[in-house]
Amino acid sequence: MVTGQNLLAIDEDVPLFALGLINSAVELGGSSFGCHPELIALFQDDLFRFLMQLGLSNMNPLILSMVCSIVLNLYHHLRSHLKLQLEAFFSCVVIRLAQGKYGASYQQQEVAMEALVDFCRQSTFMPEMYANFDCDITCGNIFEELGNLLSKSAFPVNCPLSAMHILALEGLIAVIHSMAERAGASGSIIPVLEVANPNETREYVPFWTLKCENYKDPKSWVKFVQRQKYIKRRLMIGADHFNRDPKKGLEFLQGIRLLPEKLDPQSVACFFRYTTGLDKSLLGDFLGDPDEFCLQVLAEFARTFDFQGMTLDAAMRTFLETFRLPGEAQKIHRVLEAFAGRYYEQSNQILADKDAAFLLAYSLIMLNTDQHNSQVKKKMTEEDFIKNNRSINGGQDLPREVLSELYHSIVRNEIKISYDNSSGIVEMTPSRWVGLIYRSQKSSPYIKCDSRPFLDRDMFAIISGPTIAAISVVFDHAEDEDVLRMCVEGFLAVAKISSSHHLEDVLDDLVVSLCKFTTLLNPTSSVDEPILAFGDDTKARMAAVTVFNIVNKYGDYIRTSWRNILDCILRLHKLGLLPARVVSDAEDDVEGIGDSMHGRPITGGPTLIAIPQGGAKKRSQGLMGRFSQLLSLETDEPRSQPTEQQLAAHQRTLRAIEACRIDSIITESKFLQAESLLQLVRALLWAAGRPQKAGGSPEDEDTAVFCLDLLIAVALNNRDRIMLLWQVVYEHIANIVQTTLMPCLLVEKAVFGLLRICQRLLPYKEDLAEELLRSLQLILKLDARVADAFCERITQEVMQLVKTNAKHIKSPMGWRTVSSLLSITARHYEASEVGFEALSFIMAEGAHLTPANYVLCLDAARAFAEVSVGGNERSIRALDLMTESIKCLIQWSGGAGDEETVSNSQELGEMWMRLAHGLRKVCREPREEVRNHAILSLQRSLSAAENMHLPPSFWLQSFDQVIFVMLDDLLDIALEHSQKEYRNMENTLHFAMKLVSKTFLQFLDQLILLPGFRALWLSVLSRMNRYRKAKLRGKDSEKIQELIPELLKNMLLIMKNRGVLVQRSTIGCDSLWELTWHHVQDISPSLQAELLPQWEESQEMGSVESEMDIGTGNAA
Q: Which residues are catalytic?
């Protein structure tokens, strides 16, 4: 090859021809060159050095293109042998030229960018750059630099979009696509190694001693490079601290365990040697300092170099490349002394001692200054140099050929130290190249990556921000559809990578960026202006379809950007462009939701949407609703016809919205991960705002209603994990219910949405049943005006809930809520029929009566019996329900063997008493038919109650608390109220006295066993006497007058026959016999005259027979 010094003086065809031959040789030879060390050495040194020189020369861009093609082929076949050479090529050639710095022409910049894009299209290129360089503490961050280069080059800053921008975008998207393909091909992402684990960094470990056990086994090298990257990041932070204040920088490194608690020279020297980014002037000053510790660090720093096999000038180039030689002579002296000592230790015995090495090194520095300083007019000749170095080798001369070689090396290639400039561009000097060649002999092996995404998460976390920004800017500036599609592919790839590696923040940033491009969030005054604009804006439609496709596909990993998504959905809703099925799940089986603006889907509608012209008429909502009135002849005002362009724009809008599949976001929310689902719900609550009170705008209420619909739909679609959402859903609905004072669509949706949730979830969530039913108590807290407006429909929903879920309502609390809701409907004309139907469903034939709901249902039935709404017939039916319920008590007491058996007689007795009290209270009803039926119902219940086998004390309690109270109440009513208020009370009293007589005789055998029997019997007689003497409307009741003696006679006869009422010899006159006849005398004297003589005679005969029996027994 032609040397770089003569490149400009020759025909351009010669280097092109030579480069073509080399390229063909590399393509044909391929990896087989790796078997020949001599050829590899040629590639590593001479070939790569000249390729870099050619690439940087100001020549035909075709030469640069050919150079890049050769390097690409070398990468394909021999990259395992060219690790540091590749780093140098990208740092010093590609990045430098692609940035257009240092006089690079636009053509060179474009060629360099094309070459970089070609490299990026290799799927393993970027992972290998990251693993081999970014994760190597001694190398630069090539991957990060290339990623930033592509991102920045894609930005059109204050200029139109150019071919260079598109080219950079292609490279960036190629990198992203490779990551996306690896993410899709891998069954599962390998977990990221948490190298920052405190347990791993608690103790100090010399970072320069860490080694990888096996560079061919991913299980080994992945963990190693991730740890190295972690260490490298902390070293860079430490370097930044050191550059500001060396002392504090070292203290910081001690704090993060990269240096030992007690500093030692070796650890500080290794930090200086292996850390990039250090200020080389500060480093030189530190190494040249006369402080004892600094001298020890300098000695250890020199020992980190391996000069074996190197000439003195090559060793000096390598050594001086790592820091800036201080300006003071004494510091230079100390630094060169340390260098000379290390070089002498590893020299080939040409030098007699380290003083010889020091003198020769100093002489080379002087020669370098002499030859390459323009101010020195008279240059040192070779003979002068040899003469100046006589007798420095222990009193002897050094071999002339050695000195001659050193002289010519310095003359040809200046020891020119290149320090990293502020732009970060590295310049490859001869000194640096020499150091690179020697480093390459001992550098770590080149890591080859495969199709598995071992490092993609770490890589993507670095470039995701610039990548999204670059693609977004190009998307914003682009007009060509091909470029827009390329950007969309990039967005989708970013979304796939973010979700695959669980980078939620990145995905949120992407969604936020895309939402801005939809133009849906732009404020506009007209309804149809954004619709037309959206239909005409290809970019906006593509952004909308893309963002909603991302939401549908990768919603699991969306977090805070749910708010932006909902903003777009709300905007589409306000424009009437949302498909009605978006919230249809929440509205299934709910009819007539007021003037709801999002009803069921309209089928069979037209295929064109109308373009309203002014006016303030209420617009139709829903995607198909926008079709109304187009070309209609029934309009009140003349309407201009839409143009073909407007119709086409509307059609494009509809197709785009349909492609978004917005309804799937809600219906498929059941598959979202828990955290994403919670974020969606929180976003809905945020979008809904506070419950709208009086004075809120219709638009605000419409938004709140729509968000509530979505919230309920999400809850219903996630019934299997409703516990995750229930608290926030309930609190939102409760807030609406408790703060709304007037009927409105929002509270209507809240109430019936709550009922809908309960209906849907009760069959599936037994553990949540009580909580769901308790939530229905919110309905009881509705403002009276709101409750009255919706009472009928609320009752219908409660009836439906009971009919479908009665067997799932098991707790007393749940039944209390249901019975309370049914009870309040008893007095409501529109709702009472449905409420009673629901109650009948529960109580009829005891179908769904349980010990848990028995008393509650009795109270509800009594509420229906006591009101006139529904007429006497419904009240009587309610009483019949109460009466028939005694069968359940009998069943539960009889040990039927099922789970509803009530083993505690006390509990059973209390339920019986609630039934008896309930019927007794209805006996006070002003309506004659109902009142009399209540007495008969109580009588039937008492007749059947004997089969419950309750303790006798309950029957005594029934008389005292139920029957006697009923008798007293009825008599008081008859005496105190007019015929107009309580008609025909005479018949009622007649029925009541019959009930007393029959019940007393029915339970006589049990009552006589009780100590309180005498008092009970006397109470019966006392009330008979009161009834007989009562004057109804100022006169005696013939019917009562005839009934009571007859009943009393029957009772006395039965008591006598059963041996309850017998005459016994007692001291005083307080025996049952005497007391009975005393009351009988007062009630009916004729009855006493009729019965008493017969009973006394019978009693005497019985006594004589008893005495004879006793006498006979004694004689025997």
A: 328
